[in-house]
Amino acid sequence: MEIQPTKQSFRNYLIFWSGQLFSLLGSSVIQFVMIWWIERQYSNVIYLSLANFFFILPLVVFMPLGGVLCDRYNKRKLIFTVDALQAFVTFVLIILFTLNMRDLWIVFLFIALRSSLQGIHQPTVSSIAPSMVPKEKLSRINGLSFLFNGFIQLIGPAIGALLYVLIPFNQIFWIDILTFLISVIPLALIQIPKVRELEETDVLNVKSFIGDIKEGFDILKSIPGLLILLGTSIVINFLLQPVNVLLPYYIHQIHGGLEFEYSMGSILLQAGTIIGALVTSLKKKWNRKILTMISGIVIIGIGYTILAIIPPGAFLFIWINFFILGLVLPLINTIYQTILQISVPQDKIGRVSSIDMMFSMMISPIGSLISGPIASVISVNSLFFVSGSILTGLMIFTYMFTNIRHVRYEEEVSDEEVAKVEEKELIPITED
């Protein structure tokens, strides 16, 4: 069932979105503080790898469940439940740390539990926009989302670094509970459209779960070019794991940086993201989506490689690199998100989004686990150089030697075209 977004639903979406920004702020602060605490306490690349592994693996495992749940049930109640459980897990950690129970396995368990809940939360939130935002506004809203998300990610590490210095470690976690309470208010004020009517006999069990996932995967396969993008996304996420995992070690041990230098890298990355997101929010339509995406990823690969050859202590060059990387991230993600939103039926977007996220990230846990051991053998800089070079070459090869460069996604998809997708036919795509 297709819901036609209205001005009122659009306003409701903006109210909902404002609350989610507070929730994101709390998560950003907590994520920064947890990873930096592990680095300062242990300065061990293996522990950083494990922390990232325990974050990514539950996220990948629970995303398909989140996609099925959000397509079946009340999305507002589902988001509230998941956010409340995250706040409860954080409260338990505060108690444990207050009792001086600070074993590393407790921190890993905390990361895994929060990640499991985020695996349900993320596809639910991403599935809401198509039913509440007019199609002609989706690209700009996605750009605005990255703009404000970038701002949150900009101030989150700064707040985390400041709090880490000023107050006891366990007390910082109260900000997560506070931001949850704030995010509940907008959620209580709006209604989120229901896009799927279930029969009384249509209950969630193993068989129906597998059927829902299969249907979502069929839709994913039916969109021309998307499987190629998904395949490259899997490899990209794998290759980016070394910098995701080892950045604290890279700043602290290789370049001699502390909280300020580490947070400045994150701040300038997000500053670039804000500017890039501003550009995407002002531009109404991207006509050459694939070329723009590929070019952006090539820039990321080159910047990744440059990190490996920056002289020790040259933080200005590191920060400039992060700023440039931040500029292109919103372009890539906004275009990809818009492709999904305009191509996938509303009552299946949750499953398709979760399948896309799951496959994009499924190899990342392996990358997380092996980044530390490989870096211990060949050095962090060598690993960055090799990974960045492979990423750059892969994207150039994909664009030059596959049919992806010929695919052009239109901004509008008619009701008749949606019906064809539901019958597992292709959404019409015009060729260059």
Describe the structure.
The protein is mainly alpha-helical. It is built from 16 helices and two strands. The chain has one domain (7-187, 202-431): Growth Hormone, Chain: A, CATH 1.20.1250. The longest helix is centred in the first third of the chain and has 36 residues, at 7-42. It has helices spanning 7-42, 45-72, 75-98, 104-126, 129-132, 135-166, 174-189, 206-222, 226-254, 259-282, 289-307, 315-343, 349-361, 364-378, 380-401, 415-422; strands at 407-408, 430-431. It is globular and about 55 Å long.
pLDDT averaged over residues: 78
Radius of gyration: 21 Å
Q: What CATH first level would be assigned?
A: Mainly Alpha
CATH superfamily, please? MFS general substrate transporter like domains
Number of strands: 2
Q: What share of residues are in beta strands? A: under 5%
| Low-pLDDT residue spans | 411-432
Helix content: over 70%
SSE series: HHHHHHHHHHHHHHHEHE
Q: How are the strands of the largest sheet arranged?
A: 1-2
Largest sheet: 2 strands, antiparallel
Structural class of the secondary structure composition?
Answer: mainly alpha
Q: Distance N terminus to C terminus?
A: 32 Å
Q: How many helices in DSSP terms?
A: 16
